[in-house]
Amino acid sequence: MVKTATTGGGRARGRMGEAGGVLPEWGAGGRELFYVSPDSMLMSVSLKPGAGSLQPAAPHALFPLLVIDTDVSPYDVARDGRRFLVLETTEHAAQPLTVIVNWPALLTNAASSQ
User: Fold this and answer.
1) Are the CB atoms for 1 and 16 separated by under 8 Å?
2) pTM recorded for the entire structure
3) Backbone phi and psi for residue 95, each to the nearest 5 degrees, phi listed first
């Protein structure tokens, strides 16, 4: 993947990882770049500003993503760069959630019936 980044007043181009990737997103402060690798792993690359360029560190895998449609990003990065919102299909979704409203009244009713 080649990503163009603004550094100072100019533009720098650089390769982020040997295998490439898609769907890049900037992390907090522009010091980290996230992208999806060809094997559907969310990757992270730390960036260090240099003289007119960004020097990337070695990329590292964070976790696997389910990428169905490459036109829609399956993730979004929180402002702090520490959390992600990830799209998930219903096949992999958790069990349904049951919400009990006014549960203290249920406890009171159960206690009074004993």
Assistant:
1) yes
2) 0.61
3) -65, 160
